[in-house]
Amino acid sequence: MLPEEQKAEKDWRYNPIAKIKHFTRLKTSKEFNGVYNRSTKTWHTPYFVLFYQRSDTYKAGFVASKKIGNAVHRNRAKRLLRAHFIEHIDQLKSGSYVLVAKPALLKESYAVTDKAYLHALKKCAALLSN
Prior knowledge:
Elements: H1 3-11, E1 24-25, H2 29-38, E2 41-44, E3 48-54, E4 58-63, H3 71-87, E5 95-101, H4 110-123
Parallel strand pairs: 1-4, 4-5
Antiparallel strand pairs: 2-3, 3-5
């Protein structure tokens, strides 16, 4: 197999979630409550709430309650939040992040919510200084 063919074969398997591998997922309610209660910064936008807790580890959690809608809407909201997170993962400081979706997230375009996401990270001082 030629090198170009090998590269093409790997490209179709590219998984953007692989970028998140140095972040561990928050899974239990105890972990989520720890970030909620001890977060060093919190920022509200019309589309989501960002909780940030400084620490040496990298952790992330995405939440969409039943206020968002049925299971399809909740999963879409979490996918959108995860996409914003993965897109800017290289710019984030270490710590624990919890993103809680609001119903307006599903009604707005990706570009507008991405701008709000970056603004929230700046306000929480969660971006690495370049």
